[in-house]
Amino acid sequence: MASTSPTSPRPPAPSAPRPAGPSPRGAKVAATSAGAPAAAAAAAKPSPNPIRDGLAALKKAPAPTPVLFESQATAPAPAQTYYQVVVESSRVVLRDWPKLRYSQAIAKQAVHPSQVSVPVEEYVESDARDKVREIFGDATADKIDGLVRDLVKKARAAAAPAGASK
């Protein structure tokens, strides 16, 4: 009696015979590899449906903005709202998600998340800065202030003419 161990290799599966004649893939490769001018002419041809190409370009997601800093916090009871602050290269975003309560009196009210987006140039004078300090504390607010100051300096340096800075 022969026993096979689970670690022994399996024999290769038998391959099916190829059909007679050229395969569609082989014919396509032969046609495109016949000469570079034919491939260049095919690439230069306008698309048969420019509207579809335009819509396909619109469907592409924009490049994500790099997140420089992110923090989350939950407000103390009874509010228990979830907060998030995100610092990106061009803006500071403060989001909140109120906790849904299950009592009948409050459940009839609409509870929607909100978002405040402030450009970094306006962050220092905005109400969002005070709200961030209130929710996340002094340490987080100071860190965000430093990041924003650095971003504003970089933006001003990039906007200044090259010959003006000495």
Features:
166 residues, alpha+beta, four-stranded antiparallel sheet, flat, disordered N terminus
Topology, please?
Elements: H1 24-32, H2 36-44, H3 50-59, E1 67-74, E2 82-88, E3 91-97, H4 104-107, E4 114-119, H5 120-123, H6 127-136, H7 138-159
Antiparallel strand pairs: 1-2, 2-3, 3-4
Helix pairs in contact: 6-7
Helix and strand pattern: HHHEEEHEHHH
Helical/strand content category: alpha+beta
Computed over alpha carbons, the radius of gyration is 31 Å
DSSP helix fraction: 40-55%
- Unreliable spans: 1-5, 26-36
Let me know the number of strands: 4
**How much beta, percentage-wise?**
15-25%
- Overall morphology: flat
Query: What do the pLDDT scores average to?
Result: 74
Strands side by side in the biggest sheet? 1-2-3-4
Briefly characterize the structure.
The chain has helices spanning 24-32, 36-44, 50-59, 104-107, 120-123, 127-136, 138-159, and strands at residues 67-74, 82-88, 91-97, 114-119.
